[in-house]
Write a structure and sequence with these properties.
Elements (H helix, E strand, L loop, with lengths): L3 E14 L3 E3 L2 E3 L3 E3 L7 H13 L5 H4 L13 H13 L2 E11 L9 H12 L6 E6 L5 H4 L3 E12 L2
Parallel strand pairs: 5-6
Antiparallel strand pairs: 1-4, 1-7, 2-3, 5-7
């Protein structure tokens, strides 16, 4: 019998002037970017935390505290790779992942294919098992007012036998 586990996460970052806007490893054209201790890639943060959550391994702050200078301006793919290594060491693999990025003023459609490719490579899964969607918040709340970016991630893991 196969053991399967589901992990979910949501992350939000304030958008501020003169910071790069990074989503799924891609720098997007924008005058505002994520305010964060690392590079702030909100999608990669949500993905890493959903991997950790699937096996009840804690959250990003537990493993990579934002007061630790080792992670200052860190490329967020590092967090995804570390979380992936943790689940692999526990004997699990990623089956599929479904993510949504909420951003008001920038259309992600031109970047979705490359973001899917980046996630596919990081998680060592086929691209058809990676869903990346984009949405707005219809001008509501901090995301809708262009003050923040949010991402959600849900992942299905299967125990390797």
């Amino acid at each position: 019998m196969f053991k399967m586990r589901i992990g979910y996460s949501e992350d939000i970052h304030q958008l501020v002037e003169n910071h790069p806007l990074i989503v799924g490893g891609i720098i997007l054209p924008s005058s505002k970017g994520e305010k964060a201790h690392s590079d702030g890639d909100v999608l990669y943060h949500a993905i890493a935390e959903s991997l950790l959550g699937a096996l009840a391994l804690g959250d990003l702050g537990t493993h990579f505290p934002d007061n630790d200078d080792r992670y200052l301006n860190m490329d967020s793919s590092f967090f995804v790779l570390q979380a992936y290594q943790m689940i692999s060491l526990k004997g699990y693999k990623v089956i599929n992942i479904d993510c949504t990025v909420f951003l008001e003023d920038i259309k992600l459609k031109p970047y979705i294919s490359k973001i899917r490719e980046n996630v596919s490579k990081l998680l060592n899964i086929e691209i058809e098992n990676v869903s990346i969607k984009a949405s707005t918040n219809e001008k509501l709340d901090s995301v809708g007012k262009g003050e923040a970016i949010r991402a959600t991630s849900i992942v299905l893991l299967e125990e390797m036998i």
